[in-house]
Amino acid sequence: MSLNSLFDSAARGHMNAVRITEDHRVFVAEVPVPTPAEDEVLIRPAACGLCGTDLHILHHGFPGSVYPVTPCHEFSGHIVAVGGAVRGLREGDFVAVDPNVTCGTCRWCRAGRPNLCPHLSPIGVARPGAAAEFVVAPARNTFRLRDSLRADVAAMIEPLACVLHAVDSSQGVKDRDVLVMGGGTMGLLIAIVCDMFGAGRVTIADPSPAKRAIAGRAGIANTIDPAALGEVHFDVVFEAAGVRRALEQAIDCVEKTGVLVQVGVHDADAMVGFNPFRIYERELRIIGSNSLADKFPAAVDVMNDIADRAAVLIGETFPAWEFARAAQAMAAGTGIKTQLAF
After folding, report:
1. Burial of 162 from C-beta contacts in 10 A (0-12 / 13-18 / 19+)
2. Which of 3-12, 35-44, 92-101, 231-240 has the lowest mean pLDDT?
3. CATH 3.40.50.720 region(s) of the chain?
4. Which residues pair with 199 in a beta bridge?
5. What is the dotted CATH code of the domain comprising 3-156+313-341?
6. CATH 3.90.180.10 domain span(s) along the chain
7. Which among 77, 235, 250, 270 could disulfide-bond with 43, CB atoms 3.0 to 4.6 Å apart, if both were Cys?
8. What pLDDT is recorded for position 332?
9. Which one from 14, 21, 35, 53 is the annotated catalytic residue?
10. Which of 14, 56, 78, 233 is catalytic?
11. What is the CATH number of domain 161-288?
12. Burial level of 95, CB count in 10 A (0-12/13-18/19+)?
């Protein structure tokens, strides 16, 4: 769609948006162009990524989803309008958005853990997301970027922020042997960040030879099929696959006094079996890492440093209105990061 068409849409007060209904139908609808409140900005998306949350919303439902929902919470774009109370942002700014809209006043927000806010209302889940001609975001969630940063790379700042929270939750990776279970977007970004943060050795375990090859191109030299891990142990293990078998195997790979960080999103009713005596005997620590906490500003800075490595992860890109086909491609697992382009 041309820029003129976009502004024609805005002028007549309507725009195209991808919509997902509770019965798992997906279609493109004409909806009103959102009007930014005094403390909000209106953004024209340039690129947005699909993630497991979007697939859950489409196929199974996801906690907190408000149907019909416009999906996609990983995005970059340009501001086209600002509310009257907004300072520090202006029309034309190239931005990325922290999708977690929170109350800002509860105990968790005050403690720097807004991801645990009981009033959490994420863009693309409980609020309209970026698979649309325009999307509204609070100004406090919107971060200006370097114009030189590619839009598709900038759209990965949100998962990078989740990664920074996970690595921070591990209580340190410097000089430690790190294993990442899962070679998807989260797993590869975790590996890149751990390498950047001075880990002694970083290993990616994934059954897909194609994903292991992409890891190599992203600068991760040590890759392995999980079936070949054997009895090797690691100081820090990140489970980033969201698969039961991967989590069960990850527990067995943690060295004595080591840390397992669960990053992978499992089904809400999934159950995992493990031997609690191993946790006791080996003095293991198991830590959950949920979303991005307060790491979005840090992720903006880190992405400037790893942009070239992160770009290797970008796989198939689809026109914005082919969300269903993009979701199919992502579910097939043939690439790493599936994106929509405008």
Report:
1. buried
2. 3-12
3. 161-288
4. 174
5. 3.90.180.10
6. 3-156+313-341
7. 77
8. 87
9. 53
10. 56
11. 3.40.50.720
12. buried
